[in-house]
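Take a look at my tokenised protein here and describe the backbone shape.
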Amino acid sequence: MRSIEVRALLGKKVFDSEGEPLGHLEEIEAERGDEYCVVSSYLVEHRGLLDRISSWALSASMREKLERRPSPRPYRVAWDQMDLSDVDHPRTLVPKDALERAQ
């Protein structure tokens, strides 16, 4: 079993199997076991980090003034659809169209 530090992955730009950009790896979903956690999926968002920073750093009145288009729901990439053989360049094993969106 291979071990990768979460901090090495979060924020990395993710591409699909055809080389199309999906967004940045923002969250890792895992199931907790008795002795360890098992990754179940990854959430990849286009604007996730920017949205979180702006909501924290800007006052409500400033956020209202900024024009924003609605962000699409993040991609949920199943654990077995992600290729992490190159931690600096994660990619999915399927094209973007085959991925589901998170609820």
Q: What stands out?
A: The mean pLDDT is 84. DSSP finds two helices and seven strands in the chain.
